[in-house]
Specification:
Shape: globular
Strand content: 5-15%
Mean pLDDT: 96
Largest sheet: 7 strands, mixed
CATH class of the largest domain: Alpha Beta
Helix content: 25-40%
Radius of gyration: 22 Å
Oligomer: single chain
Bound molecules: pyridoxal-5'-phosphate
CATH topology of the largest domain: Aspartate Aminotransferase, domain 2
Distance between the termini: 59 Å
Number of strands: 12
Structural class: alpha/beta
Amino acid sequence: MSDSAPYGFETLQIHAGARPDPVTGARQTPIYQTTGYVFRDADHAAALFNLQEVGYIYSRLTNPTIAVLQERIATLEGGVGAVCCSSGHAAQIMALFPLMAPGRNVVASTRLYGGTLTQFSQTIKRFGWSATFVDFDDIEAVKAAIDDDTRAVFCESVSNPGGYVTDIPSIAAITDAAGIPLIVDNTSATPYLCNPIAQGATLVVHSTTKYLTGNGTVMGGCVVDSGKFDWSANDKFPSLSEPEPAYHGLKFHETFGELAFTFHGIAIGLRDLGMTLNPQAAHYTLMGIETLSLRMARHVENAKTVAEWLEADPRVDYVTYAGLASSQYADRVKALYPKGAGALFTFAVKGGYDACVKLVDELELFSHVANLGDTRSLIIHSASTTHRQLSEEQQIAAGAAPNVVRLSIGIETAADLIADLDQALAAATA
Ligand SMILES: Cc1ncc(COP(=O)(O)O)c(C=O)c1O
């Protein structure tokens, strides 16, 4: 498709990155199920390995099916390039890897997916990295947490599990002033509901496992680069600005300009960390993205209906959905998330931990699943599952207190979802 035409989101979600197969004319993107690619001759092979020519070498680094997915997600997010990888968690490491070094830290929101809280508070310590967690609604606290060793700031646009919405432009103003990249996990909002790059983010990460694929079939992740950050402004990001010994002293930023982060992600990240996506998974995710706008609009509509019903129910203490008129985030949603606040939220059940566990067991249509972003409605009791490794204080800070359950609202008939919640709440609070 033409690069110059100002196509709409619905067109780009189907066409961006894809063109009919030049050999067969296949209209759908083929699954290039191959590990290797035949070089034209020895000179061609040498040029590819030297990064003097762009092409396919080995599917740990690049694959034509995955390349279409990368271009499609980059286009929808308004980035210059993207690197897909094996999971959302892999994407987070892929995003941090070029930025961090032993002794460096990332300033992160307290309101993150529980697995990310564990990855940042525990696992990255083994690389000599650390994380400082702050409440991202407290802008001054975010500013104060950045020190000379900070190399990234990290938050979720719509946070898992609470569905709270982040004021990305205000956070971006702080990271811009500090000369630090802002990484936004846009998994729960998707580019249909939020464009972090347009709001000032440097990098966007995704668990494509969720809404982008949309039906709970395959794992995947993606890092999108805005192309806007000046990696050579100072000596903080030597992996991108200084000579790379693994490529004969090539300087990624000097050589690839706005594509430096993307090339580094493929040439160093995928090559050496090996967190590669497989082409079958890329195919499923491409299929999912074709209907993203339709699904997200329906997810949002259903989430609003269910959240409003729960809010009015006497068996429920509170509902965190930012799309409710009563939410403290209502103005922020209107300004920054005009198409809706997603379909992920928690509610507190009168009766606490025991009632939550019973509720989960009593539901028939909702599936008790450690996933989100499926066409099916899902429920989980975060405190006893995804956020189980955290202290009660951390669970509360993350929006996963023992008395709340998380819903990922699907695209079924809303009245059926309400009827299921009604019967399960009756049993759980009897
Ligand atoms: C917001 C968010 N980011 C990242 C991840 C990690 O993604 P994955 O499970 O694909 O590794 C999850 C998983 O639930 C998530 O909810």
